[in-house]
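Support request, please re-run this one:
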Amino acid sequence: MPEIFFDMDNYLNPLTEAIRNAANPVEAEKHSKYLKNKFVCLGVKTPAKNDILKIHFAKFGKPEKSKMNAYVRFLYDMPEREFHHIAINLYEKIAKKLEIDDVEIIEYMIVTNSWWDSVDTVLRLHRVYFALFPEQIRPVTERWIESDNIWLKRSALLFQLHLRKKTDEKLLFDYIQRVHDEKEFFIQKAIGWALRQYSRENPKSVEKFVHENNLSPLARREALRLME
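Re-run finished. Output below.
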């Protein structure tokens, strides 16, 4: 048996088994409906999932960095939504060890089994990656904003979401102007969210930008919410 699959059995099987044992059919139906029935759900709420992860890490330790790309693909191949989030959670445990080429697995998590709940969770990995490799910010996010994939575009709009005073305003406004006329709901919502968050630091600049650009009613409303 190849080493990686042997390791899957020893490290991931106890975790996936614990998650399955915590399944709640009533919550599973609610969660699936919440996600527009796009995914099979086990109904394991976040607090319960976090408790399982805490116990798992205490017993088995953090995952090995060298195995994480395989772990992510293994978990993303599973139909249940909880396992896609488990993959992100595991990667967060070794995020400080990210290498420059790991942008490929970050992009994999954005474009695979994509929906807002997972894509926006991966934002936490963006922050670590770009903090480690700031020279990659422009080339990577430039590729994302020009992509045909809406989730990569959304990620390009939101990767600065929590940078506050360190936000590159010029870059944020540039990316918004490139996609502001797209009809996709998740793009328009991201525009509004990004501007609203930045308005906490620079409300006058956001207000000026909104009034000078022909934003959609949704994006405009979301952007100005804190200033109303």
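The longest helix spans residues 3-21. The mean pLDDT is 94.
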